[in-house]
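Sequence and fold:
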Amino acid sequence: MKFNRPMAAQSTPEDYILAIDYGEARLGLAVAHEKAKLPQPLGVIPRENAVQALKKIVEKEKIKTMVLGLPRNLSGEET
């Protein structure tokens, strides 16, 4: 699985936060710069191989922080 990180090229890898929306079937991923805190979509991975995929992403991108969220729809219900 190939992910593109659309953040500024001058930022160091240690400045990035990986945001994870944990859903029933898959995990939605986004990356944000530590200072700007504006997440950009990174991709979606299936739950069945999530641990291995997350490990690779964290190692490759040298993510400093991970944040786990619970995805909700506009009415506030879990999705």
Q: What stands out?
A: The radius of gyration is 13 Å. The beta strands are 16-22, 26-33, 40-46, 65-69.
